[in-house]
Design brief:
The protein has five helices and 32 strands. It is mainly beta. The strands form seven sheets. Strands 12-9-14-19-16-17 form a six-stranded mixed β-sheet, covered by helices on one side. The longest helix has 11 residues, at 4-14. The chain is globular, with a radius of gyration of 21 Å. The structure holds CU-O-CU linkage (C2O) and copper (II) ion. The site of CU-O-CU linkage has 10 residues, from strand 5 and strand 31. The site of copper (II) ion has 5 residues, from loops.
């Protein structure tokens, strides 16, 4: 059943500049030597007190394995990618964060439905070098899925992230999703590009600030084109784009369709079939790949049609093959319930204009509130990109509904926190401030852009 979404995506890809043969079809078993997809390290959590999960996280330089070699990266807990924070709904997380870097840093819990204040997702807290801070928050009952953490100090975020500071957060499935997806092999894939010069991370060059820094090595959990031997005939890939600026356009061998089941940490109402997924920096998606009757399937990277990026060839990212004893499983029919956004109760409309390195003609200033909103109210934001380059719109704390793109309704309802805005696009976003108050940020998630001023302050009270 081709949805209008997959039609649009097909159109998008055929409009691209690359004529692509069905590369995967003639692929020999070159991946036979591929490394296994490494599971992510995890933050050890002490749950000895009921309702509490206590853990420790450090930021430090370390020499770590990267794609079969070693490199000196900026890491969380001396691992790359950073260790997974695996939490449950309703529990209180206490995370003692030690900054062992030579400069300040901090944590942002991207996508988590937690307050932007106190010890929770408070990006105004800076942890000076050599000091520690205890973050604490309660995981919302509405949260489920893949989120992530990364530093958020203005002017330092791009360098710290590029050098390795990124980690995934997983909120365990609620019972109805666990039921719908029972028996399905489940892998977390952190997509992160990096460029190494010998053992070190290549520093930013001047030109990379306006266009965004992309790494030459495309890694999945720190490895190039690893392999998954799946325990079931359907495999669930939970994908996080932890890159600074790279857009990952993903397709399977021979344009085999796959299903999207979640975006930005929220399950869709039902799986959406497509042949292509565009994952922008900061974005997450979960997909189901069908292996029934196949020897293997490869997920390919395709360059995204965005301006300014260095040329990167089409290349394999991940090989998946079913084990001989893979259990057959069926596709889920229903997933989550996406709440409806009631436009009749909107109290405020706003215009957010994205332009190169600024928002509404203003560069970021932390002492200026750009949007003041009322707690409990609903608003519609008209986000318009007047630049010549794609930008990635991200709002902290409050997921939003994409109501329309250039006056067209999206093919399916979803709650998002990070979306692409192409040159000339006008997105209408429905923002519901029903929960949480405080002062936080919205910005372009290409880290170089937000560092250079494409970021603004919102206060809700
Ligand atoms: Cu993932 Cu303001 O960030
Ligand atoms: Cu941008």
């Amino acid at each position: 059943m081709p949805t209008s979404l997959s039609r649009r995506r097909r159109f998008l890809s055929s409009a691209g500049v690359f004529a692509l043969p069905a590369l995967g079809l003639c692929l020999p078993r070159a991946f036979a030597q591929a490394r296994e997809l490494p599971p992510l390290a995890e933050i050890a959590l002490d749950r000895s007190e009921p309702g509490l999960a206590r853990g420790e996280l450090s930021a430090e330089q370390a020499v770590v394995p990267v794609d079969g070699g070693f490199a000196r990266l900026t890491t969380y807990n001396r691992s790359f990618p950073g260790p997974l924070l695996r939490v449950r709904r309703g529990e209180t997380v206490q995370l003692r964060f030690s900054n062992r870097l030579a400069e300040e840093t901090n944590l942002h819990f991207h996508g988590m439905n937690i307050p932007p204040v106190r010890r929770a997702d408070n990006i105004w807290i800076h942890v000076p070098k050599g000091e520690a801070f205890e973050y604490a928050f309660t995981v919302s009952q509405r949260d489920a899925g893949l989120h992530w953490y990364h530093p958020h100090i203005h002017g330092k975020m791009a360098r710290q992230m590029f050098a390795g500071l990124t980690g995934a957060i997983l909120v365990e499935d609620p019972p109805e999703i666990a039921d719908a997806l029972r028996g399905i092999d489940d892998r977390i894939c952190v997509l992160k590009d990096i460029t190494l010069q010998g053992e070190d991370v290549e520093p930013h060059r001047h030109l990379e600030w306006p266009v965004g820094k992309e790494g030459a090595q495309l890694l999945v959990n720190g490895v190039r084109a690893p392999m998954v031997r799946a325990r079931s005939t359907l495999v669930r890939l939970r994908l996080l784009n932890a890159s600074n600026a790279r857009y990952w356009r993903l397709r399977l061998t021979a344009d085999q369709p796959f299903s999207i089941i979640a975006e930005d940490g929220y399950f869709l109402g039902a799986p959406i079939e497509t042949e292509e997924l565009l994952l922008v920096p900061g974005g997450r998606a979960e997909i189901l790949v069908d292996l029934a009757g196949r020897e293997h399937v490869t997920m390919w990277y395709h360059p995204a049609p965005r301006r300014g990026h260095a040329f990167t060839a089409v290349q394999p990212l991940l090989h998946v093959e079913p084990r001989a004893d893979a259990t057959p499983v069926v596709h889920p029919a229903r997933l989550g319930v996406v709440p409806v956004f009631d436009e009749t109760t909107v109290v405020q409309q706003r215009s957010v204009v994205l332009s190169l390195l600024n928002i509404c003609s203003q560069f970021f200033r932390e002492d200026r509130v750009d949007i003041h909103a009322r707690a409990g109210s609903r608003e519609i934001w008209r986000v318009n990109n007047v630049d010549l380059m794609d930008h990635t719109f991200h709002l902290h704390t409050w997921h939003f509904h994409v109501l329309s793109v250039n006056d067209e309704a999206p093919a399916h309802d979803a709650l998002r926190d990070t979306v692409n805005v192409r040159p000339g696009d006008v997105l209408r976003l429905g923002v519901d401030f029903k929960e949480h108050r405080g002062r936080t940020l919205y910005h372009c998630h290409m880290a170089e852009h937000s560092d250079k001023g494409m970021m603004a302050v919102i206060q809700v009270d």
